[in-house]
Amino acid sequence: MTQRRKVLTGRSVASGIVIGTTRTVTSGAPAIAELSLPTGKLQAELTALDEAVRHTVAELRSLRDAAGKKIAGPLTKIFDAQLLIAGDVEFLNQVKERILADRKNASFVYQRMVTEAIAPLKDTSDTYLAQMANDIEAVARKVLSHLDGVAEDATVSFAANTIVVSDRFSPNEILSLRSRRAIGFIAGDGGRNSHMALIARSLMLPVVVLPEAFVEIADRTRVVVDGTSGEVILNPTDQECAEYNRKKKKLGPAMVGRIRKLSTVPPLTRDDHPIDIMANLELPGPVDAILSEKRIPVGLYRTEFLCLEQGGFPDEEAQYRIYNEIAETFAGASVTLRTFDLGGDKLPGDTLVMPEENPALGWRGIRPMLDLREVFKTQIRAMLRASAHGRLRILLPMIADKSELERARRMISQVMLGLRRQHEEYRKEIEIGIMIEVPSAALQVEHLLPHCDFVAIGTNDLTQYTMSADRNNALVADLYQYLHPAVLQLVKRVATACQRAGVPCHLCGEAAGDHAALPLFIGMGIDKFSMNPARIFDACRLVGKINREVAASLVPGVLASDSASDVQKRLAEFRKTLSL
Ligand code: PEP
Ligand code: MG
Q: What is the spatial distance between Cα 151 and Cα 154, in angstroms, rounded to a whole number?
């Protein structure tokens, strides 16, 4: 472990500058302190353990009930299995005996005995046993979270200016660490288009990925993290700290100030065509007010982050309040609320953990929502009720097949009928759109268009699934290229089909905020984009330099290219012709 000044260069995943002190953690299980206790304190440990198990059982039961009566078989089985594990009296008695014999704290003994119990299960290729190990770990995490004495209480704030270092972060870890006042992150792994990165960017928290070097960073080291350049300075000099503090001051309010300067929204191309520039949002944030002041619509509101923040599904009233607030904040501009896009790397706590060999190809997006019918209908009800107070639209994620869209629409119609019967207000003409982010949907888009009112092209997942390259995995980051001609052909295909059918289409993956690529997409005839708010100002400025006909001349060459690097070269050449 180095204690001297050292500069480490990694990958910038979320920009911004922070100066602070590191806390190193490992993803997954919390480190639990081993405490030797006097005999007089042991009874309190046994009582605390009983209480923690009782809370866990109650929580699992309510999760099972919250998921609705008609939940899918696999999920019922998971909760049942976890309830059996949580209620295993024999194991609990063994833990208690060991607490008394060793005179140690309950959380330490419990965690050690769980680790011993699952070791043989993990050491096998039997998927049933591996799943059982996962269930036991999930239950143990819940029990430990209820037990006092867990070394790192997840509700306790860090010291001021803490920068957390870990091998990796999930999106909900970023959320919970933010609520503990972490100001920045250094990770061993994570892609720029991972959900972890998206959430960090939306919260304006810098993240740098240092694939190997992150292990060199000792706990409580003073560091500068420059999320823009990807540099991390260990033990910086006072002069460096002062210099980065100056840089940081300039960066902070810059985004709001720049958006405020925009005069024409939506901006016009050189040939006077309006281009809608919209915002991707995840949670209520510091830029909402200025976006709404400028009447910038929200092209993608990722509602699943509400679940990640709360560690479960918010109930109808809580959702209604949130959607209503969004509708009111953005009154005058439309807001596209996407239904929960959970699964893959986006899981609220342990609630939906179902061991899957390929989570990105598994139960995610619209798929769990079609199975968890009550969860889906509750969300739709909340969205529809809020639609009475603003221009809300509903967006369905990850449609891969027409039958999914039909089933979702049927459920939406049922919810509408229920609202009418109860004389509840909602916008009757509310638009229902779909994300095109799976190659099958892009290739069959003509069959989907008659069943939806608008389309959002999600290049983040479309790239992952077209290139078969995990968006979270730094090892395949070279392959994960949204400018690959294969991805671009699908984007063009969808854009053309939408133009022919007269269905509005916007691009809302990270590619939408790529200024080099904007002329290409405009050349394809796309005239609506939704992006990270940090990209909005420059995108609006750039639009004014682009002539659509000239941009269209870029398209054939790009689509006929043989690689992403060739496309990048063409875009760079084109950019030189714009008077920037
Ligand atoms: C996408 O896949 O491009 C998208 C916008 O959705 P998300 O990034 O939330 O998966
Ligand atoms: Mg997606």
A: 9
Q: What is the tens place of the pLDDT at every residue in 344-373?
A: 777 665 555 556 778 889 889 999 999 989
Residue pair 392/335 in contact (Cβ under 8 Å)? The answer is: yes
What is the position in ligand 1's atom list of the atom closest to the CA of 341? 9
Closest CA to ligand 1's atom 7: 460
SS3 233: strand
Q: What's the sign of the alpha-carbon dihedral 229, 232, 235, 241?
A: positive
User: For the segment 236-266, what is each residue's pLDDT rounded down to a tens digit?
Assistant: 999 999 999 888 877 666 777 788 888 878 9
- Ligand 1 centre to CA of 511 (Å) is 10
pLDDT recorded at residue 80: 76
- Residue 160: CB atoms within 10 A of its CB come to 9
Instruction: Check if 195 is active-site.
Output: yes
Is residue 506 flagged as an active site residue?
no
State the Cα–Cα distance between residues 311 and 577, nearest whole angstrom. 49
Task: For residue 111, give every residue at least 6 positions away whose Cβ sits within 8 Å of its Cβ, in sequence order, or none.
Answer: 29, 32, 140, 144
Tokens in use for 12? Answer: 């910038």
Q: Looking at residue 195, what is its pLDDT?
A: 82
Instruction: Please tell me if the CB atom of residue 341 comes closer than 6 angstroms to any atom of ligand 1.
Output: yes
Ligand 2 centroid–CA 504 distance in Å is: 19
DSSP structural state of residue 104: B
Is residue 12 within 8 A of residue 227, CB to CB? The reply is: yes
Helix axes 564-577, 485-501, angle to 10 degrees: 60
Average pLDDT taken over every residue of the chain: 88
Q: Which atom of ligand 1 sits closest to the CA of residue 437?
A: 2
CA atoms in the 13 A half-sphere facing the CB of 9: 1
CATH topology of domain 252-577: TIM Barrel (3.20.20)
Distances 361 to 356, 364, 407, 481 between C-alpha atoms, Å? 9, 8, 20, 19
Superfamily of domain 40-147: PtsI, HPr-binding domain (1.10.274.10)
Distance from the CA of 129 to the center of ligand 2, in angstroms?
32
Q: Catalytic residue, from 195, 389, 484, 506: name it.
A: 195
Counting from 1 in the atom list of ligand 1, the atom nearest the Cα of 280 is 5
Summarize the confidence of residues 492-500 as an average pLDDT: 98
Question: Peptide bond before 253: cis, by omega within 30 degrees of 0?
Answer: no
Assign domain 6-27+153-248 to a CATH class.
alpha beta
CATH 3.20.20.60, the chain: domain bounds: 252-577
